[in-house]
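Hello Y.,

Per our agreement to keep a running log of every chain we model this quarter, I'm adding this entry. I've kept the format consistent with earlier entries: sequence first, then predicted structure.
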Amino acid sequence: MAYPTINSPYGFQPINRYDGIPYAGATLQIPIGASYNTPIYNGSSVKIVQNGTLELSGSTTTGTIIGVATGFQYTNSSGQTVQAQYYPGTSVTNAIAYVVVDASAEFKVTLTVSGAPTVVVGANATIVGTNLAEIQNGTGSATTGNAQSSCVIPANGAGSATTLPWRVVAVVPDTAYLSGSTVLYPEVLVKINNPQLTALTGVNYVA
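Predicted structure for the entry above:
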């Protein structure tokens, strides 16, 4: 039943809109601060900070998220303009990210548990409708350019907190597997709760 097997987190992959309207893949180009030296990988959730530039949202139970980064452009040390799968964080200038900011966008993501961010695990179908925290798990893959972000399965009886950044819209049946007689789902479809672009709270102006 389990095909293909999901061995590790891969970040957030935009695949659709949860309202049924066809997803066009539109992105917003947002600059990355010249002094921001942390790599950002394809599939990372990101936020706008008070200087109007982009940073990782970070592993979070309450974090602000404007969207998910899906590609990058920057000038390398040789003066060449590069289109890239990830932002290396150093030795580049004029960096921008292509970010999915559609408030109705639906993302596919793996599930992990707190304390084991690289181990993909399955949840049963009752996870639909719950709110989830996120783990970004440090660096992504320089080979694929993909993030290692995932969502955390809530404890039994938890998942209703309004501060959690992601809401499960559906499970992904293609990679389900049996554990005894129980069908478990290692991947789910999620949407952003309270996305930064439509939230009432903004960032502070810097003169």
